[in-house]
Amino acid sequence: MDVLLDTSALIDFDDIATGIANEFPGAKMGISIVTIAELHYGVLVATDTKRAERLTFLSAVRGRYTNPYEIDDAVAVKWSEFSHAVRLAGRQPRSRVNDLWIAATAAMHNLALVTRNGADFEAVKHHLANLVDI
To answer: pTM of whole model > 0.85?
Structure first.
């Protein structure tokens, strides 16, 4: 099974790479276009001292993951279903919008979702092929 890295897992990739490789030997690792957006936002809001570091990281990610998973019609429909599930669970989907896009992408492409924040996906984890909180 191939892997979709959540933004939190990607940021900490050096710390968790061995665990991912052991859990999913030979798996292709990818990211969502939403992760690219989150990283771009991180550059924009960074203090002057962090901006260059974040821009360097973003450039490295863009070089390594040249074909991020896009949002298409099927992902959009799944996102709406996930947002509804979060609301039914008594939570607000607005604060989890990006996580829900990433989860919908993983669901529609049958990818294992690797994250450092498993609680962010609690309401939709049973819809995912595999949720790994490292």
So the answer is: yes
Distance CA 40, CA 47 (A): 14
- Mean pLDDT across 39-61: 95
Q: What is the distance between the alpha carbons of residues 75 and 52, in angstroms, rounded to a whole number?
A: 33
| Cα distance between residue 10 and residue 34, in whole Å | 12
Q: Kindly tell me if the per-residue pLDDT of 73 is higher than 90.
A: yes
Residue percentage of the chain with pLDDT more than 90 = 76
Between the alpha carbon of residue 114 and those of residues 24, 69, 119, 131, the distances in Å are: 11, 15, 12, 6
What number does CATH give the domain 3-30+69-133?
A: 3.40.50.1010
